[in-house]
Write a structure and sequence with these properties.
With about 170 residues, the protein is α+β, with helices and mostly antiparallel strands. The protein has 2 domains: about 40 residues; about 100 residues, Immunoglobulin-like (Sandwich). Helix content is about 20%, strand content about 30%. The chain is built from 1 helix and 8 strands. The strands form 2 sheets. Strands 1-6-5-4 form a 4-stranded mixed β-sheet, with no helix packed on it. Strands 2-3-8-7 form a 4-stranded antiparallel β-sheet, with no helix packed on it. The chain is elongated and about 75 Å long.
Length: about 170
Amino acid sequence: MAKSDTSRAVDKAAAGHRAMHPGMSLNENMNRVFDNYFGDSIYAPFARSPSSGILSRSPGIITPKVDITESEKDIKLTAELPGMDEDDIELVFSDGMLTIKGEKSYEREDENENVHVMERSYGSFKRSFKVPDYVMSGKIDAKFDKGVLTVTMPRRPDQAKAEKKIKIKK
């Protein structure tokens, strides 16, 4: 029985997807290498591409996932920190950088139990973010609820988004 043009196209697309997978794996591995070397500091908001998982890119490395949003009145950073309490987290603002540090501990109830699968990540983490100059650093506020840290950084009211059109000359 001969294959139809449609099924050949589907097979070709699937083969292309399989061929792309190793490249995607290489990309993830390179991100991990750079993160291990340079640490988990971000010096420009929105600079890192999202990766899979809630806390980690690879087993044993904790990297809280964050969302950063900006409105006319503030910038909000929201970080997912499941299984942690506010006492496990330290938030520091210094020299225009906001740093989130913390540790997620592994607690065993019974030392004699056999572990068959362990996929959750434990350990310490540190992430830093450059904060724009127009943020009122003295009014930064943080709340922690149900494993989610929300940091609100108010903008100075006189600081509108600066946008200037530049004329291109011939």
